[in-house]
Write a structure and sequence with these properties.
With 430 residues, the protein is an alpha+beta fold. 30% of the residues lie in helices and 27% in strands. The protein is globular. Bound molecules: uridine-diphosphate-2(N-acetylglucosaminyl) butyric acid.
Amino acid sequence: MTKYVIHGGKPLHGTVEISGAKNAAMAILPATLMVDGVCRIENVPQISDVTQILTILQELGADIRTVNRTTVDIDCSHIRNARVPDALARKIRASYYLIGAMLSRFGSAEVPLPGGCDFGGRPIDQHIKGFSAMGADVEVRSGLIYAMAREGRMQGATVYLDVVSVGATMNVMLAATMAEGTTIIENAAREPHIVDLANFLNSMGASIMGAGTDVIKVRGVDHLSGGSYSIIPDQIEAGTYMAAVTAAGGEVLIRNVIPKHLDCITAKLLEMGAQVEEQGDAVLVRRTGELSRTNVKTLPYPGFPTDMQPQMAACLCLAEGTSILTEGVWDNRYGYVDEFRRMGAQIQVDGKVAVVEGVDHLTGAAVRACDLRAGAAMVIAGLAAQGVTEVSQVQHIERGYEDIVRKLSGIGADIRVVVTPDDEEAVQAG
Ligand code: EPU
């Protein structure tokens, strides 16, 4: 079993470098499937979800060459239109982007239903609604999604999304990129990674306008050709280090960020008493005094990100007074609360609302990472807690955080990886 052992209660000091954005990479890498020629992708995060998607592309026939630690050359010119391998696709959520990309390039796709962190239901009805509007027959049978463009090629259409969905917006964008005619996506999600996917596709020859607004227009093109593209920095990884400094105290320069993407997080940390100073492509976060309570509601971008909700809860556990957290995106994203309680946190959950009574201090305990962001929140709580915290099931954390132990050690955290031989833990997807 691999665990992180954290001796908490030490303020953080120094500089940390943010990696490329996981949720941008997880759409851009499958999108290379549509490109004829070599795509050089830079600032690729070294995380296990990226390894999974690259392995899937390789199994489908892509030629992948590692240029350096964060750069890969991907050539999908000779890729086959084969069924996506089941065991690999089920380990990650983003395998569903292969449906949009394969429909665009081949006019058909067979992809297993995706995995993903367990937040209650994670339907894909809006993806299917989009593909159907664009002339595909879509059927879900025996754990597989079968999609086939009736006219051999996807047809441009107007797609109104009933819910603001990151995945459906990107998937319809992919399916529309090489469709016949123009597609309009209404009520589109506006996350930075949606803009990044559009920028990547445009740099390879696509014609996508309006990404970052709630109406996206995609004029289908016949061909995409290779080129170079650098993935944006990870908003959530940066936010996680900002929360770590807020909870544990200290002063850390967080480099390679786009401060604008962090505004929604910065605003809440300022309300809690942290100081955040923008310095070009870095933010300096400082926290020396007591933390104040605040209320947080998660919403699609530019609202407060749901993927920062557990990390924010770790900070609120240590704030003076009662804070209200409202989860506005997922039905059930409080599965981690019992783990916090083991550390002395006072949290009551009722549906989508969590009431957090701040405590004077948290105490180290053995806790588990229930999923990716909950795992990051446990690490943050451990850094701020008195005593020793052991976080198990860290494979969830390593799906989305590059070198978290090395990065935290670099800013003064006392965190070690401990491997013991008798591990029967299931590696769950997310
Ligand atoms: N929804 C539907 N129908 C659909 C699609 C979504 O009802 O067809 C609902 C969902 O149930 C949810 C809401 O719409 O209530 C938003 O879901 P969305 O589609 O935006 O989520 P996703 O694309 O499955 C991505 C990220 C998640 C992140 C969400 C929201 C990836 C691989 N995953 O998921 O990231 O929480 O957007 O921002 O990009 C994470 O990184 O930890 C993570 C879970």
